[in-house]
Amino acid sequence: MGRTLTYPKRQANTVNRYKHRATYDLGAIHSIVNASQVLHVSFNPGPDDPFPTILPMIGQMGSFDYPSAGIDEPQECYLHGYVSSRIMNLARNAEAGEGLPICIATSKVDGIILSLTPNSHSYNYRSVVLHGYAKLVTSEEEKLWAMKLITNSVVTDRWDNSRVPPDRAEMSSTVILKVAIVDGSGKIRDGGVSDERKDTGNEEVTNRIWTGVVPVWETFGDPIPSVSNKISEVPDHITNFIAKNNERNRDYAQRAVHITLPVEEQH
Amino acid sequence: MGRTLTYPKRQANTVNRYKHRATYDLGAIHSIVNASQVLHVSFNPGPDDPFPTILPMIGQMGSFDYPSAGIDEPQECYLHGYVSSRIMNLARNAEAGEGLPICIATSKVDGIILSLTPNSHSYNYRSVVLHGYAKLVTSEEEKLWAMKLITNSVVTDRWDNSRVPPDRAEMSSTVILKVAIVDGSGKIRDGGVSDERKDTGNEEVTNRIWTGVVPVWETFGDPIPSVSNKISEVPDHITNFIAKNNERNRDYAQRAVHITLPVEEQH
């Protein structure tokens, strides 16, 4: 009861700066991942390449084995995207072992913090980093389940409002990666402007420099029907999704400004 | 005259799928980087760690040695962020050699493509991946130049409208990474819905499923003054920045829907 599951702290995922903004809670971390339209996935292409590389992918947290798992309970990350043959082959070759070591990251900017001096400028934001081992999903049943999970993350209930199930060609051309999470961490910055006393106490400065926050959020516009669309009215699952997300995004960005951190935790 | 500079194609940055959306043009790639509020920077923490990791950072393309270099000419990427001691030490240790091998990525979603079947769903988007070698900026003059470049990328002209120059403590606590770019690639998807003939020719499907695009863009809200702000009116450099960016972002997302690709290039 009241138990909060957290990811283990390893050297690689321990947030050293601004500890107050760090979170290791599964619930907070999974929520940020699920609210992201795009995830950035990093992997090492091979021993001959000195550079890690990054692919943008779509993903969601979920548990196929325990579908009733809550957002604050252990889950895997399911990824879909323009899966180059590179990461597919690497993940396929890693099937025998633990899987391909990858890093998943996402960041959302919620506001621009305009302070007296450039060094005190900042963003309100939410970011997450996960490390884990990726394998291809090979079970048809699990792949179908993951495709529905990911499609519905793009627009709620879209799966049942489109032509499903996928046919045999669609199933075999779709690649889903399943990532067993090893560790994770999140960082959240909210609140207002924070300046140092050397500037707040200097009237020459405070009398000429505006300080405050510009909230930032993602807006979904009015749906534009395709030329071949035959449905006159935009369906509820789309208008509801747009209305709900626009309100949630705007509210978050505006309310984040007014959260007051203890003085020693600001900046 | 009319010359277009492109990044070299290596195996690691060659876009294999949907080639028609790939770009190697310096101008297109640099513009997407500069329009991003956050960049995702990947590096390998060390030989004992199997996972690459990712940090969110703020960055801009620029050339200190050739400050008049155009957006379509060779430039370095300057990065600032919550630089953990990890990446700082790695970059510092790499000073003697080429630098720390890193990958820089960014993605912007411009619209949700709602097609007849989940497999045809897509995003309009712009994404970039750069590979390069990172070193710390050690020259005071170059660091100050990069701090101004990065501050003004957050809000145009903010540098001259804040308390500058940074004092000695601010200069020494600021770390800027300079990345010599080795290769880069971008991907751009715009246009509308694209479905396969097996579905567009099926009236049972087309009569019940709405298809179209939901444009998506980043909105900057009304500025919220801090409790200690003494300037009654929001300055022009802020209101102009907000108005210009809101219009540009919304216009891009809405116009992207109507760009028609040749049929063989769609999807």
UniProtKB/TrEMBL annotation, chains A, B:
Transmembrane segments: none annotated. Pfam families: Pyridox_ox_2 (PF12900). It comes from the Eukaryota. InterPro entries: Pyridox_Oxase-rel, Split_barrel_FMN-bd. This is Flavin-nucleotide-binding protein. It comes from Penicillium malachiteum.
